[in-house]
Amino acid sequence: MAIAESTTGLLGRFRQVNNAFPQTAQIKEIKASGGKVFGWLCSYVPEELIYAAGALPVRVTGYPHETELADGTAYLSTVSCSFSRSCLQIALRGEYSSLDGIIAGSTCDGARRLFDHWRRYVKTPFAQIISVPRKYSATTLDLYYSEIVSLKASLEKYLGTSITDDALANAISVYNRSRAIMGRLYELRMRDGPPLTGAEMLEVTNAAVRIPRDTFNAWAGELLAYLETSPVRHRGRARIMVIGSVLNNVSFIESIEAGGALVVTDGLCTGIRYLADPVVREDSELPLRSIARRYLTGFPCARMFPAHDRFDRIVKLLQDYRVDGIISENIRYCVQNAHDLPLLRQMVSALGIPILALDIEYGTSGSGQIQTRVQAFLEMIEASRRRPVER
Amino acid sequence: MGTAIDTSTGKISQLIRYMKFLTTFYRNQPHAHYFRMLQDYFIALRDARANGGFVVAHTIFFPVEIFDALDLVPMHLEFTGSLMSFFGIECGDLLAGAAEMGLPPEVCSAHRVIAGALKASAMPQANAVVCSNLVCDNAMKSGELTMALHSCPGFVFDYPFNQGEAADRAIMQELKDVIAFLENVSGHKMDWHRLSANIAETNRQIGLVREVNNLCKAVPSPLPPQDFLKFLVVDYMGAGKPETTLYLQSLRDDLAAKVAAGKGFVNPERLRLMATMLSPWYLQGTIDAILSEHGAAIVCNPNLCDWRQSLQLDPARPLESIAMKLAACSPMRMFGPLDERALGPLRDCVREYRINGAINFNHLGCRQIGPTFKIYKDILDELDVPILYMDCDLIDPTVTSADEVRQKLEQFFELLEDR
Lengths: 391, 419
Ligand code: SF4
Ligand code: SF4
Hints:
The structure holds two protein chains of two kinds.
Chain A: H1 5-20, H2 25-32, E1 37-41, H3 47-52, E2 56-59, H4 70-76, H5 82-92, E3 101-105, H6 109-122, E4 126-130, H7 138-159, H8 165-188, H9 198-208, H10 213-229, E5 238-244, H11 250-258, E6 261-266, H12 272-275, H13 287-297, H14 307-320, E7 325-331, H15 335-350, E8 355-360, H16 368-386
Helix pairs in contact in A: 1-9, 1-10, 4-5, 5-6, 7-13, 8-9, 8-10, 9-11
Chain B: H1 8-25, H2 30-46, E1 55-58, H3 64-69, E2 73-76, H4 77-86, H5 91-100, H6 109-119, E3 128-132, H7 137-149, E4 154-157, H8 165-186, H9 192-215, H10 227-238, H11 242-260, E5 271-275, H12 284-293, E6 296-300, H13 318-328, H14 330-333, H15 340-352, E7 357-363, H16 373-382, E8 387-392, H17 402-417
Parallel strand pairs in B: 1-2, 1-3, 3-4, 5-6, 5-7, 7-8
Helix pairs in contact in B: 1-2, 2-10, 2-11, 4-6, 5-6, 6-7, 9-11, 12-17
The structure holds iron/sulfur cluster (2 copies).
C-alpha cells in the first residue's frame, strides 16, 4: 500500500515523536525549561485538568514492540495484562524518569495494580489515583466530579499554582479542537478510498497524547488540510473495524493491512474513543463539571455498564464506515473485553458481520499465526460476498 | 447461546442432597448448622418458582441482609457455581461451555463456571440481577452476562475505589437506589424491622468470627484450615440468619474447649502459616491432610474474614451499618489502593499469630492476588517470613494436581524447618 510522499512527510513528524517516546525532543525541552510533565494512565483521567495546570500530560504506554517482560512480570505476575506489565517495566528501567507525576484511574484490575506498584517502586514524585465509576448516574457523576476536584486541589498544592476556571475553559477548547480535527480525519475514512490507512491514523492518535497539545493541533490541522484534497485512495479486500484492549502498536495494524485489509475505524481507547465526544459546556456549569460529565458519558470502555451503550456505538460505526468485518484484539488477562465477547458475538452475528477474536499480548506486531488467521478471515469475508443470496 | 431447557432444579437438588447428607453426617457438631444453612438456602432457591418467589442473582459482596428483609430469594452467582463444582457437578462441562461461548481461560474460573452454568441452564432463572464492581473486574461482567442471558433487569452497585466523604455519600445513595430498584422490580416492600433484626444478627456474627480468629492465636491453633472457606460462605450467603449465628456460636464453643484442652488442628504444631487467599476449593481436604502430616497449620488469613477494624453495627441505622460492614470487611482491603490499610494487617498477623511462613495461593485468573505477590513478599521479607507462591486454580482441577501441590508444600515445609 503505497503512501503518497506528502502524506509521508506530514506523518513523519508524528512517527518521529512516537519512535522517540518517552524521550522525545518536546519532553526534553519542557524539562530543560523547568516545565512539568505528568503521566496519565487510562482514558478516564481528564487531560484538560493537567493542561490547565500548565503541565504537559502524556499517556503512559508500554513498549511499542513485543519484548520479554521479566521485570514487569516479576512485580505484577503473569496474571496482569501485558500492557500494565510493559508500562511498569519501562518505568522500573527509569525510562519514565522525566515524569513529575503519575495520575491513574481505578479503571480495571490491571490499571489499579499497576498504580500500586508504580507508587511503591517507581516513586514518581506526585502520584494519585482517582475513583472512576462504572456507570453513569447523578450519584456517580457527583462522585467522579468530587474525585477530580480533589485531584485539582492536589495538583495545585504540588505545583504551587491555581488552576482557574478560565484556564480550564481554555483547555476545553484546545482539546475540543483536537477532537474535531481527529474526528474529521476519521470521517475521511468513511470514503470508498480513504486517503489514510488505519496504521497511519494510529500514528496520529498515538502522538496526540505525547506532545504539547498546541503543537499537535497545528500538525494535525496541516495533515487534515492536505488529506481533504489529497488524490490518495487506499483500497483493501475488506473494510475492517478493530476493537478490543488498549493498542498502541502501529505495526499490528500494518500487519493486518499488509494482508490486504483496510482498517477504516475502531472502538479503541487509543482511537475513536479518545477523540469522540467533545466536552459540552452547559449553561452556567463549572468547566470542571462539564469535563467530568464528558469523561463519564463519552464513548464507553468495556469496563462500563451497561455494555449495550458501547455495543450501540459500535453498531453505528459499523454502519457509518460500511465495515465488512471486525477484528477483536484482546490482551490476555484484559477481563473486561474478554467477558464481553459472548454478547458482542451474538450482537454482530445478528447483523451478519463476521468477527475474528484474537488473543494477543500488548505490543505484538502480528505474528505469522495472527497473519494466517487474518488471511483466512479476509477470505471468508470475500467468499461470503460471492455466495449467491438464497431465496 | 439460545435458552436451553431449565435443568437447574436437578443441579440444585443434587446440592441439596449433599447438604442433607452432610447435615446428618455432622449432627451434634458445629458444621451441622453450616450445612443446614446451605440446605435451606438451596431449598428456597429450588422451590422459588413453585412458591411464587422472586429470585435475585447477585455477585460477591452484596449485603444479603437486604434480600431477606425484602423477602427475596438470593442466588449468589459465584458461590452457587463454585459449590456446584466443589461438590463435583460437571465442573469440566461448565468450563467447556464457557470456552464455547468465547471466554478465554484468563477469565477467573469462578466466573467461567457461572457463564457455563448459565449456558447449560444449570442456574435457576433469575428475576433480577444485582452485581457490583467488587472485588474485581469479573464480578460486574458476570452480573451483566446473567442479565442478558436471563433477560431480566439488573442493577450495578457502583462501589467507590477511594474512601472519603464523597465515597460515603455515594455508597449510601447506591444502597437506597438498589433497594428502590428491588422494590420496584419485585413489588415487595422493604421490611425495615426485619433489616434491623438482620443487622443485629450480623453484628453478633462478626463478633463471633473475631472470637474464633482470636482462638486461632493459641498454640496449637484449633481450627482446621479449610474452615476459613466456611466463614466466607456464611458471610456471603448466610449473614444475618439465625442459623449462621448458631453455627458460629457452636464453633466458637468447640474451639474454646479445644484450646483449653491444648488440642490443635495438629499436635504437635511445628509450623504456623498464613494464607493470603483461599486454597483451591477442590483441594481443601487434601491440603489439610498434607498440612497435618507435617505438623503445619494455616492459622490466619488477613484477606478473608479478618474483622480487625473496630466495628459496631447499629440496628437502628441499618443502611449506615451495611456501609460500615462493607468498608471494614477484609477482602475490601484488597479492593482499594494497596496502602497501609491493606498491608498493615499482613504485618500485624505475623506478630499476632506467630507466623513462620506464608502461602500465596495464586489462582490463575485471579486479578487480586497474583499481582500483589511482590509487595507481599517485600513486606514479609522485612519480617523474615518466607512466602510460597503456589500457582493453582480455585476451581479447575486440571491446572494443578494434588501431587504438585503436595510437592511444593513439602519443599516449603523443608525450607521452613531448616531455618
Ligand atoms: S489492557 Fe485491559 S486489563 Fe490491561 S490496563 Fe487496559 S483495560 Fe485494564
Ligand atoms: S478469585 Fe479473584 S478474580 Fe476470581 S472472583 Fe475472586 S477476586 Fe475475582
